[in-house]
Amino acid sequence: MFFYWDCVQASWQVFGECIPKMNSKAANPLKALLDNRLILPEDRNIFQTYLTRIENGVQEGMPEDSLEVQCHVKSKEGYQWYKINCHFKKDKQGRILEAAGILELMSAIEIMQKSQLARLTMDRNPQVFATAIREQFAKYPQDKFAFIQFDVEKFKMINELYGEEFGTEVLGNILNTLKGICNKEQLFARLSADLFLVVTRYEEEKELIEFIHYLEENLNHYKDVTYSFAFGVYLVTDKTMETRHMGDSASLARKSIKGNALQNIAFFQESLKSTLYSRKFIEDNMKAALENGEFVMYLQPKYSISENCIIGAEALVRWIHPEMGMIAPMNFIPVLEENGFIVKLDEYIWEQACRTIKTWMDENRTPVPISVNVSRVHLMKEQILHTLKTLLEKYQIPKELLELEITETVHNINIDGAIHSLKEEGYTLLMDDFGSGASSLNTLKNTPFDVIKIDREFLNHFIESERGQKIIAHTIHMTKDIGLDLIAEGVETKEQAVFLQDCGCNMAQGYFYAKPMPLEEFDKFIS
Ligand code: C2E
Ligand code: CA
Ligand code: CA
Q1: Can you say how many angstroms the Cα of residue 164 is from the centroid of all Cα atoms in its chain?
Q2: Ligand 1 atom at minimal distance to the Cα of residue 511
Q3: Smallest Cα–Cα separation from 134: which of 242, 55, 33?
Q4: Fewer Cβ neighbours under 10 Å: the N or C end of the chain?
């Protein structure tokens, strides 16, 4: 809608399409917007001030030849962002003689830029962002677009180490820097806390990666602190798809490398989708599964190679889903570790193990120790000692019968403390997965562990070559030499068992002896 204000005659005129319900015949049609309550209450003041400035003509300290205001005006779709742009004709003294202006709906990009300035997070106005993207798609129908979603790795830690105020500054700095880096047509937004999105056009993937590196270099530090990002990229293939789904795909790519020190950019691939469904499936179903007893403890026997008899068992969880059947732990444990639910599941399995030992004792059978897996997530919690103690007391079983398997990766102060406390309390500790990438010889120095569990992959891989065999043999000798016990896992053949025994490792667990099995089967097996 166009308007014209004759300052001398004090008369208004409007042309073009008006806002519905706007009284274009009113003496002052803009003022009629106010009178008819078509301006959002919060915006009424700035709108009124704007009108007064036009009507009063010359204002001191107003050298501009034009004036703009943005406010919410009620239209068919409810309140929408409008802008009024007005140009003046002035006399020699600078008094306004005439004003001509335009009142129009703001484009999504303009609103975006406005909200970026106001540092709004997108969760408050996602539809604006979506519309801005659509506008870009329409403007460049032939061009390729990419969604780049990224978040600060270990942002929580920044908050913990430097305080939340500093964390907020970091995020503000990221947003400000993005404002400087991105051009007018590269849309960016803060999606939530430390999660950001940039939508950009590109020609080649190479150029996109360079752009991401450029973003990274500029964003990864604030004051003296540096941090890293995980970037997930979705290359738009079908522009008619909902933009929300495009964002989801970028998000999925990002999550696939979160916490990965070696890779910080990932492109979306269709195959990631199955992870998405199973993640959602797991998170939607885990609570009910625990309540319904769908998580079941399986036991895998541990053998003495020389005596060929069972000397213990490892408790391994299985998810027996009524429709999906058996789900292997590697398909759900990583998700539960990420969302913390593993703590509940572990405790549930520990209780099953304790109950089993108790039953064996009550039935006057010689109980064998059961080892349970302890997730690293658990070791960061204070409650672990208390939980174990309560369980042992409840079932009245001696500490020696419940052993703890822990995967020792790099030293971590938070976890080391918990492991030492467990040791002081007298628990038998098994270092799980020894020889896998995560553990190192270094972890053996001053270790509180009692038993080293040789990793299945390590065993199978090294045993193939003469050189590898020597490494296994020496590892076993060294471990025994410093007074630690050994058990090999994943023993699949008689040759492997014999080799291990020759090297001095007399305990083994693996398919050669028995697979993990339900309790009833184990009970039959042992007798
Ligand atoms: P892990 O603790 O290293 O457990 C040994 C895994 O090797 C088990 O896989 C077992 O079934 C498998 N295995 C044993 N012998 C052989 C063999 O001869 N050949 C082959 N190919 N595999 C063998 P599973 O049960 O699928 O468990 C995988 C991992 O999931 C476990 O690795 C453990 O890290 C985790 N896990 C299982 N149950 C629990 C639990 O209750 N709590 C926690 N936190 N983690 C668990
Ligand atoms: Ca284990
Ligand atoms: Ca293991």
Answers
A1: 19
A2: 18
A3: 242
A4: C
Residue with tokens 């993207």: 133
What percent of the chain stands above pLDDT 70? Answer: 92
Pocket flag, ligand 1, residue 349 (CB < 6 Å): yes
Which residues have C-beta within 8 Å of that of residue 183, sequence separation ≥ 6? none
Q: What is the mean pLDDT of residues 299-320?
A: 96
Distance 442 CA to ligand 1 centre (A): 24
For ligand 1, atom 35, the nearest C-alpha belongs to 329
Closest ligand 1 atom to 492 CA: 18
- Digit-coded pLDDT (tens) for 172-225: 899 889 988 998 889 988 887 789 999 999 999 999 999 999 999 999 999 989
With residues binned 3-state (H G I as helix, E B as strand, rest as coil), the percentages for the chain, rounded to 5, are 45, 25, 30
- Ligand 1 atom closest to Cα of residue 433: 3
Q: Which atom of ligand 1 is nearest to the CA of 316?
A: 38
Strands of 166-276 (E only): list them: 187-192, 195-202, 221-222, 225-226, 229-235, 265-267
How far is 4 from 443, CA to CA, in rounded Å?
A: 81
10 Å Cβ neighbour count for 49? 10
Using the CB atoms, write b or e for 230-246: b if 16+ within 10 Å.
Answer: bbbbbbbeebeeebeeb
pTM above 0.90, yes or no: no
Cα of 400 vs centre of ligand 1, distance in Å, is 22
- How many of the other CB atoms lie within 10 Å of CB of 262? 5
Rounded Cα gap, residues 272 and 393, in angstroms: 45
CB of 460 closer than 6 A to ligand 1?
A: no
How many residues are there in the chain? 527
**Whole-angstrom Cα distance, residue 207 to residue 38?**
47
Pocket flag, ligand 1, residue 375 (CB < 6 Å):
yes
Instruction: Please tell me what DSSP assigns to residue 400.
Output: G
For residues 119 and 381, what is the distance between their CA atoms, to the nearest angstrom? 36
